[in-house]
Write a structure and sequence with these properties.
The chain has helices spanning 14-26, 43-53, 71-84, 101-116, 133-142, 153-159, 183-198, 201-210, 213-217, 240-253, 268-290, and strands spanning 4-6, 31-34, 58-61, 64-65, 89-94, 126-129, 145-149, 170-179, 235-236, 257-264. The protein is an alpha/beta fold. The chain is globular.
Length: 291
């Protein structure tokens, strides 16, 4: 099992990302991902920053919205990042707030258009953001991987096809973690984020399918107690041991690329402290998986 790491630019400033990326590479993190929607900095530009700061780690957008892209411009940017990094760039595509068959078809069509324009050149891996079974099936037929987000291991098991994943397919999952100097503040961050996501229809439907929608509906913004069901999705201030067990639960459910995704409340020094601790967990998990 490989381990990835997501750097949210609303949490980690680009000037800090330049320092964090080599640290993650040294910890044998497989891939570094940059979420895009609602972020203050451009995900593809941050990929360029991270690729230039590393030599081996893969780097990807996680994810950009297909419906907002100009295919010709995107094609040029993808080729530039892929060729300059000798194939280390990964393009993560999502449907955004769109849903239904047309949204899936739009993501697939953009991926096919990009591949058609790159014939005879280095192939850029493409991952689809998948919340539920429909997009995962599309990814299995038209992409190199899929990225799940904010879901419990039981949901992963539920949407996996009966035949399993095809060989070489990467099933990633964003594992969001919340860190603050007080446990109460970390819990409050988790509650705020999960209730915010529940306001998006596509996520609310996923939470319903995962059986946690009622627990989320009962949350208060200042709640000090997080229902057990939500602790299957995310953790506030986890210890190294708790996080290690958490990652392996997702691995047993079928995720072969868990992506550590930290939210950190605090100054730069505290952010680096948290990242270093998480990087050591990623290194130990990857080492164990290789034996």
């Amino acid at each position: 099992m490989k381990v990835g790491f997501a750097l949210r630019s609303s949490v980690f400033h680009p000037s800090l990302i330049v320092r964090i990326a080599p640290l993650l590479e040294a910890a044998k993190v497989d891939s570094i991902w940059f979420p895009d929607a609602g972020m203050p900095f451009d995900a593809m530009d941050l990929c360029a920053v991270a690729l230039g700061s590393t030599r081996q780690a893969r780097v990807g957008t996680g994810v950009i919205r297909a419906g907002e892209q100009d295919p010709a411009r995107l094609s040029t940017r993808v080729r530039t990042l892929s060729e300059s990094s000798e194939g280390r760039f990964i393009l993560g595509l999502g449907a955004g707030h769109a849903s239904g068959p047309e949204a899936i078809e739009g993501v697939v069509a953009l991926a096919e258009k990009l591949r058609a324009g790159h014939r005879g050149e280095r192939k850029t891996p493409i991952f689809f953001a998948a919340l539920r079974g429909g997009m995962l099936r599309a990814a299995l037929s038209s992409a190199d991987g899929a990225i799940l987000n904010f879901c419990p291991p039981s949901h992963v098991e539920k949407i996996l096809p009966k035949g399993g994943l095809r060989k070489g397919f990467a099933l990633a999952c964003y594992i969001k973690l919340f860190f603050a100097k007080s446990d109460e503040a970390a819990r409050r961050m988790l509650v705020q984020e999960v209730t915010t996501y529940d306001g998006y229809p596509s996520y609310h439907k996923m939470f319903e399918e995962a059986g946690v929608a009622d627990a989320i509906a009962g949350l208060g913004r200042d709640s000090n107690r997080i229902p057990d069901g939500l602790l299957e999705i995310s953790l506030p201030n986890p210890t190294k041991g708790e996080l290690t067990q958490f990652l392996w639960r997702f691995a047993r459910a079928g995720v072969n690329l868990p992506i550590i995704y930290p939210y950190v409340s605090g100054g730069e020094g505290y952010q680096l402290e948290v990242v270093k601790a998480l990087a050591s967990v990623a290194a130990s998990v990857a080492k164990r998986a290789s034996h």
